[in-house]
From TrEMBL:
PROSITE patterns: ABC_TRANSPORTER_1, ABC_TRANSPORTER_2. InterPro entries: AAA+_ATPase (IPR003593), ABC_SmlMolc_Importer (IPR050093), ABC_transporter-like_ATP-bd (IPR003439), ABC_transporter-like_CS (IPR017871), Mo/tungstate-bd_C_term_dom (IPR008995), P-loop_NTPase (IPR027417), Transp-assoc_OB_typ2 (IPR013611). Keywords: ATP-binding, Cell membrane, Membrane, Nucleotide-binding, Transport. It comes from the Bacteria. PANTHER family: SPERMIDINE/PUTRESCINE IMPORT ATP-BINDING PROTEIN POTA, SPERMIDINE_PUTRESCINE IMPORT ATP-BINDING PROTEIN POTA. Residues 4-234 form the ABC transporter domain. This is ABC transporter ATP-binding protein. One of its GO terms (molecular function) is ATP binding. Pfam families: ABC_tran, TOBE_2.
Amino acid sequence: MSFLELKGLSKRYDGVTAVAACDLSVAKGEFVSLLGPSGCGKTTTLQMVAGFVQPSSGRILLDGKDITEVKPNQRGLGIVFQSYALFPHMTVADNVAFGLEMQGVAAGERRKRVATTLELVHLGALAGRYPRELSGGQRQRVALARALAIQPPVLLLDEPMGALDAKLREEMQIELRALQHRVGVTTIMVTHDQAEAMTLSDRVVLMNKGSIEQVGRPFEMYERPNGRFASTFLGKANVFEAHRAAPGALVEVQGHRLPSSDTHCTGVMEYIVRPEKIALVPDAQALLRGRVNARVFLGNHWLFQVDTPLGVVQVTHANNGLPQAAEGDEVGLAWSPEDARLVPREGS
Ligand code: ATP
């Protein structure tokens, strides 16, 4: 059942199509991320849902009602911006009470709701402080509390962790996820950070150049990207231009014959293997041979760059002790057919 629906939603500025005919259905209680590179139209899409940007065409439906022409403040949505936009001259409690006051909620009820919402984000003890007296993470929680206090049907988050450092960002992601599960509020978040999208979302909406490229659960999308863009934006991937004459035949990559369990695809395509799916093996078992030109230690894994006749291949292995090869070593590379994904070649 769809709770929030975007139907053919587009936004054009003079000569620029920021968002092109996007269709998306979000279920009640779902956490969906709009993910993509800078300029792909994520923020414009979110702003249209918020009501700050008027679509050039298309409709937005909330719980079955068309809200495309409804003013932002009458949509009753909770919004958190990257900058938080807290009122500096108001205490934490007053910041959180602001939306309730706007809605005309009576003082007694307002106090109760402010207290419960602040408890929800673990800020009960800081109700009397001013924003300048808070850490970045605490400010972010105030912004969340302010958005949630009005009990919105949908929570909109625009790069909500953008101002936090990497470690705090990770902590807040886990916290936000738990909070969203507890409250059950339908949430749409804009991010350009694939790890953040995967950590938080039930489904990821991958955008590129104003259009939706792929929608899916994080694991699904990582395992089965539908093209070069999806495979390289969500994680790392080795992508080779390939060709197959008939269904079920081996795939031809620059004269090398490689296996894939995607048996149906034929013609020109791309052959995709994730770095962590590639094993270093003895020559007899190798699909491809090469020489390690660089080996980098990255804490939880090793990255090997291997020069092969097909170009540089990246291989990553979990750090389970000593690495399997050194710079300069000749190595054999192998992977299983299930780990080789075939997708249509972009632009073909
Ligand atoms: P970022 O991650 O950098 O914020 P984004 O994916 O959110 O990027 P948008 O801000 O939605 O991208 O912009 C999409 C496209 O629309 C860009 O090419 C941008 O330059 C253009 N655009 C956005 N707002 C306007 C505007 N008010 N006038 C003209 N062009 C605009």
